[in-house]
Structure formats: structure tokens, C-alpha cells
Design brief:
This protein is of the alpha+beta class. The strands form 3 sheets. Strands 6, 9, 10, 11, 12, 13, 14, 15 and 16 form a 9-stranded mixed beta sheet that branches. It is globular and about 60 Å long.
Length: 419
């Protein structure tokens, strides 16, 4: 079945969103590791207007390639909440400042930094430490640090860039010409493409970080996951600021002296930037590129005149997800009332232990629905999932203890043989 979503009279674009309903899906959960307990409702999109996707995100949907899904929180093993940051109120933490300082020190060893893309007149662009300056007012300026800050643009460019202040310009080279003894850091925003350079970095990352088998990481899989997008690209100009933003799926290319070190896959939407995926060179893990790219995406969102930085789903029981709440002040979407609530107000509700298991279950944040949820109690599905999670946690702990025991035993044997 194909469903067409009208663009609500949007005169900018005559295209229509075309979706095919797939229905409910059960799958292995990559967060808690249970089989067939992750339940979601999905659709396949042939074309999708950015306005329609934004409305779907505000109802708890998320896309992976051309597939869009909404977790069924009341029956699924892990409750997924859409999380976003209002960038104007961003409060950068000490640990996040440290990430920026690590990059600054690294670049200062080479003598300079080039933050690409301010405007066509080559005006100064923020350095890596500018985020601390913008939000807390106590970061050192690039000039005080003795770093080179410049903007390059070329009308014959091969890539279309959305610069850090949201203007559209063409960029050709990430900077061949550099001052002697300097290291150059550039960020270029281009259309999503399956190039050999980007794929090779993606494969290197997947194999080293996520332990994928090399033969399983293919160009076609890369394209389906991080290049193919149903989003209809569209340019919009803010009437107040005059900034033009190219909406749709983009790749942000992070380079040091022209070498690709990270790629951020993003969706630029009418009110914000949605972070889809990031991969980086494992050899540069000391630069903390995962956190660095998130901070640069927040900076980009703000400079482009957009309001929100969308970080995907937040799962309270998943330690790997906890870092998202470190970008403050963040908000969570209540899946029942479809309203946004401050994370700080939601955390105590999600902290509530269920039946002494150490696990939480889906909870609405709206007071009325929260009270109704408490009166209803746990469903049979939720009780079953809690039991499965408890059993899995026990099995995992036992295996870890056994492995550590063997390690201690082998260490003692080696020590004895050494005497």
C-alpha cells in the first residue's frame, strides 16, 4: 500500500511524500541484546519532504536509510525517547571543553587551524575553541592562541558547502596551500555520496570499533545505510537573517591537512540538525572525534540559525546512550502526549526501579498520563522482558567472572613457570 502525504499547501515544493507501510517488525535489540524483543512499526519512503519528516520526528519516528520506524515502547524491550538540545541554551561542560582543547593542542603543535566556511568575503570563522567562547564566554580567542583562522572559497568548487554561518558556497580544496609548519583543520558540508574515500574510512571504523568482519562491510551496505535518502533536498532562506540553508541529507567531512579523519552524516531540517551517524579514523581516537564532531554539529546548528540539535533516541537503561544527556539542557519527547519535557525533570521518573530488577520501563512524562500509567501497573509483556533482561544480565556476569577467573589462573601459571 502506498500512502501520499500532502505537503500542507507548501508552495516551495510540489513534490509529495510517498510512503509504503511495512507494519510491525520484531528484531534483535542491539542495546540490551535480547532476541526478537525489539518491536517497532515501520514504513519505506520513496520520497519524503523535510517538513513531513520533521513532523514524524516530533511523533517519535526515526529514519535509517529509506526505512522509517517508530519503537513500540509499551511492548518493546527498551524504551526509546527522542532527545534534542536547544542550541541557544547549550551549556558546555568541563569535559566537553577538554575535547576542544585536545584538538587545539594537536593543531598548535603544527602551528595553525583553518575553520572553513564563513562567507564569500573570507571573513574569520570560529576556531575549535570558539564553542567555549560563544556559550560560556571564557574560552580564548583564536588570535590569543596564536592560531591561523581563515576562510577559503572557490567558485569552481566540486562540492557544495553549507558554511558554519549557514551561507551556501562552493568549495574546491580543503586547503592544499598552507603556511609552513601549520596543521589545518577543515569541515566541509557536501551532498551525501558513496565515494571510495568515505567508504574506506567507514570500513576501517566498522572493523576496528564495532568489530565487523571486513567482508561484511560493503559499498552497497554503506550506500543503503548512510547515503541513500528519501529526503527531498530544498533550499530555504530565513527572512530575518537572510541565511540560506540547503535542507536534506548531507555529509560533513572533517580533514586535517587534507586527510579525511571523520565523516558526520546529518539531516538538515526546517528547525534543526538531526545527527544520523558518525564514523572516524580509529588511528586518531586520541582526538576524541566522536565527541568533537557532536560539538561541531551543535556549533554548526547554531551558526546556521537553526534551533535544535536532534540526537536520535535516548535509552535510559543503556550505558552507551547516557552520553547524550550530557549535552545540556536537553529535552525528551513524551511518546504519549507528544510534548517535550526537560531531561532533568524526566530523569527521576526513568530512574524508578521496576520490581527490584535494576531496569526501568517506558513512562510518559505528562502528569495525567503518568498517573494513569501508575494505576495500570506493568503489563505482562513488560514483566516478561524484565525477567529476560535479569536472566541475561546474570548470564553475562557469570561469563565475565569465569573469564576473569581463567585470566587470573593463567597469570598465576605463567608466574609459577617463571620462577
Amino acid at each position: 500500500m502506498e500512502r501520499r502525504v500532502p505537503p500542507n499547501g507548501n508552495a516551495r515544493n510540489k513534490a509529495q511524500s510517498k510512503l509504503r507501510v511495512c507494519g510491525y517488525q520484531r528484531s534483535h535489540c542491539g542495546y540490551c541484546n535480547l532476541d526478537n524483543e525489539s518491536i517497532s512499526f515501520g514504513v519505506l519512503a520513496k520520497t519524503l519532504l523535510v517538513d513531513d519528516y520533521l513532523r514524524m520526528m516530533h511523533r517519535g519516528w526515526r529514519r535509517s536509510g529509506s526505512y522509517l520506524y517508530k519503537p513500540t515502547n509499551f511492548a518493546s524491550c527498551c524504551a526509546c525517547y527522542t532527545i534534542r538540545l536547544r542550541v541557544e541554551g547549550f551549556q558546555i561542560s568541563k569535559s566537553q571543553k577538554k575535547v576542544l582543547k585536545i584538538l587545539d593542542r594537536f593543531l598548535n603543535k603544527g602551528g595553525g587551524v583553518d575553520a572553513m566556511g564563513s562567507d564569500k568575503s573570507n571573513s574569520a570563522s570560529p576556531s575549535s575553541s570558539s564553542l567555549a567562547t560563544q556559550y560560556n564566554g571564557d574560552g580564548m580567542s583564536a588570535e590569543k592562541q596564536g592560531m591561523i583562522v581563515e576562510t577559503k572559497s572557490n567558485g569552481n568548487g566540486s562540492g557544495e558547502e553549507m558554511s558554519e554561518v549557514g551561507t551556501k558556497e562552493s568549495v574546491k580544496d580543503a586547503g592544499k596551500a598552507k603556511t609552513s609548519g601549520t596543521a589545518r583543520f577543515t569541515i566541509q558540508t557536501v551532498d551525501a555520496e558513496a565515494t571510495v574515500e568515505r567508504f574506506n574510512l567507514y570500513k576501517k571504523y566498522q572493523v576496528a570499533v564495532h568489530k565487523d568482519k571486513p567482508e561484511d562491510v560493503t559499498m552497497s551496505g554503506f550506500s543503503r545505510f548512510l547515503v541513500d535518502s528519501p529526503l527531498v533536498s530544498e533550499e530555504r532562506t530565513d527572512e530575518k537573517t537572510g541565511k540560506t540553508v540547503s535542507l536534506g541529507c548531507k555529509h560533513q567531512l572533517y580533514r586535517i591537512d587534507g586527510r579525511l579523519v571523520a565523516v558526520g552524516v546529518i539531516d538538515l531540517l526546517p528547525d534543526g540538525l538531526s545527527s544520523v551517524y558518525t564514523f572516524y579514523d580509529p588511528d586518531d581516537r586520541d582526538l576524541v572525534l566522536g565527541k568533537l564532531t557532536a560539538l561541531k554539529e551543535i556549533e554548526y546548528t547554531r551558526e546556521a540559525g537553526l534551533q535544535y540539535y536532534y540526537m536520535g533516541f535516548y535509552i535510559h537503561d543503556c550505558q552507551k546512550m547516557r552520553y547524550k544527556a550530557e549535552y545540556k539542557p536537553s529535552e525528551l519527547l513524551c511518546g504519549t502526549s507528544l510534548e517535550w519535557f526537560p531531561y532533568a525533570a524526566c530523569k527521576p521518573l526513568m530512574d524508578q526501579d521496576q520490581e527490584g530488577s535494576g531496569f526501568s520501563v517506558y513512562t510518559p512524562f505528562h502528569p495525567t498520563f503518568l498517573q494513569q500509567r501508575a494505576e495500570l501497573g506493568l503489563s505482562s509483556d513488560e514483566k516478561r522482558v524484565i525477567k529476560l533482561k535479569t536472566e541475561l544480565a546474570g548470564t553475562t556476569a557469570a561469563k565475565k567472572e569465569e573469564k576473569e577467573g581463567k585470566g587470573r589462573g593463567s597469570g598465576a601459571a605463567l608466574a609459577d613457570s617463571g620462577r
